[in-house]
Amino acid sequence: MTHRLAVLISGSGTNLQAIMDAQKAGTLDAEIAVVFSNRASAAGLERAAQAGIPTASLDHRDYPDREQFDQAMIEVLTPYAPDTVVLAGFMRILSAVFVRHYAGRLINIHPSLLPKYRGLNTHARALEACDSEHGCSIHFVTEELDGGPLIAQAPIAVHANDTVDSLSKRVQQREHLLYPQVLQWRAQDRLALTDNGVVLDGKPLPAQGYALA
Ligand code: NHR
Ligand code: GAR
Question: Which uninterrupted H or E stretch holds 205?
Fold first, then answer.
């Protein structure tokens, strides 16, 4: 059966676009069952609608707390029966309610080489620290923010004249390669979170995950 994805976004959705493009190109054997946003105005919802993909949104500001918002999201997503829930620029911290419900099926892409720079403003922090290397990471989501087991990383070199804009552009180009690849592993049933950590093709991955060349 075709692997079903629910993609959660908050903004422009360029990672969503890369996932849609890979599916169309035949390099990602998955169905995007639904695209969900906590912002009804997210440009990514329009990209999905254009492609005929079901969309849904709930405004987190309409809920008294994170738990009730998360429970409402679960209720919206459940009919779409996702095999993998994909955070692609989703900007709301998820409570235990959501993380436990989708344990082992919930994946995030984060714009830093974790464990460096969990949280927000990662590009500015890498520049501030004069790092020579930066990049993105994909990890299974746990209750620990940006602290879940790593699946893959794509490093890039930081240039002397880089700005937040130039750096984030190059990181995003790598994100757009890495995310469809990792999702194809999920679609092919090759990637799982086990008691022995992250396993690809039956073998445990190193702590930093797979490194994109
Ligand atoms: N939830 C859990 N439990 N664990 C993770 O690893 C998560 C998560 C939810 C989102 C994405 C993450 C990122 O890749 C992510 C990972 C939002 C914030 C944040 O501070 C931090 C990290 C990430 C996403 N959000 C603010 C909040 O109060 C709102 C910020 C805003 O709206 O701009 O939720 O970086
Ligand atoms: C991506 O760079 C992603 O790594 C980052 O937001 C961008 C979303 O872009 N994620 C976070 O910062 C999560 N807190 P997109 O909407 O164009 O895919």
Answer: none
